[in-house]
Amino acid sequence: MTLNFARNFHLIAALLVSALAFGIVAPSPAYACTLCSCSTTASGASFGTYDPTSPAPKDTSGTVTINCTGLIALFGSVDISASAGSSGNAAQRTMRQGINTLNYNLYVNPARSIVFGNGAGGTQRISTSLNGLLFFSQSTFFYARLPANQWARAGNYSDTIVITVAY
Questions:
Q1: What percentage of the chain carries pLDDT values higher than 70?
Q2: 26-166 classified as CATH 3.30.565.10
Q3: Distance (Å, rounded) from C-alpha 19 to C-alpha 26?
Q4: Could you give the CA distance from residue 84 to residue 27 in angstroms, rounded to a whole number?
Q5: DSSP E strands, the chain
Q6: Where do the domains of the chain lie?
Q7: For a FRET experiment, which of 29, 40, 91, 126 has its CA 20 to 30 Å from that of 166?
Q8: What is the C-alpha separation between 155 and 147, in angstroms, rounded?
Q9: Digit-coded pLDDT (tens) for 88-105
């Protein structure tokens, strides 16, 4: 078993050296993960109990975690994008409970000034550089805000956001 691992490791190292020598290490997300597999998990952003009489918005955050193993490009990147949800408009997301709605949004920065989306309509994806050769793990934060002074019927409100990771 050790002999096979050593032989495979030398083959991978030789391929990597060849790729570096010929400038084949691609910086584009489509080629960032070669001969590897990745898994992604995301934690939801939960606002908890909302008080419509509070003058302050309700803020929270969530994470997207990416784990990859295999031959990973040293100069590649990972792009994380978010769907618009049930509103169909990432700039104006809504949570729903039947016909009732609450406005909220997701952001790429802690100041909550840049909307997290797919790059269209003024939204921005989250990009991160790969920093591993045979293993890569990264947890990236996104931020959420439920604006103040929204009068809505009491109940459980939700929305479904699809997170897409391109590597």
A1: 77
A2: no
A3: 9
A4: 28
A5: 33-42, 58-72, 77-82, 93-97, 100-107, 126-129, 135-146, 163-166
A6: 26-166
A7: 91
A8: 17
A9: 999 999 999 999 999 999
